Amino acid sequence: MAEQKEKNENIKYIVRLANTNLDGTRSVVYALSNIKGIGYRTAEILLKKMNIPRNVKLGELDDSKIEEIKEAIERRYNEFYPTWTLNHQKDIQTGENLMKVGPDLGVALQDDINRMKRTRSYKGMRHEKGKKVRGQRTRSNGRKGLAVGVVKRREGPAEAGAAAPAAPAPAPAETKK
Q1: More confident residue, 147 or 117
Q2: How far apart are CA 41 and CA 3, in angstroms?
Q3: Which of 11, 102, 131, 148 could form a disulfide bond with 19, CB atoms 3.0-4.6 angstroms apart?
Q4: pTM here?
């Protein structure tokens, strides 16, 4: 309890990879999984191919290793990842299998959705309407965010006098036996 972890003087507390600030005190595999487009599994595949132990802290790696990781993520992904792990397969413009990471992934995804909307495909139409796209049921689920209740019609100044509250209805007459 009284023992404190000694601070390593050589550790980099913030490491910048793929336009993302990563925590240098975390293990390499978990730190890399904080990059958008790289999950735990793809980070493990990359580290295994590069012979980097997965439990080493990211900030303890020397600059040359960090540059190798950066190069592998951004440019040489075809050497390290099998095709089925890539997140942008059969790119519409180049036909290549690509690995998009960081902000590029969001841009590519939005471009794909906009292309589907422009071509008026079924998926594009569903995206436009804000409905489920992948065949899920919509009868009872996915109702969040819709309008609830009845919206009362706004009365104009001319209709205000005509719509005045009526006098209370007379009570029904009692019948005697």
Answers
A1: 117
A2: 34
A3: 102
A4: 0.66
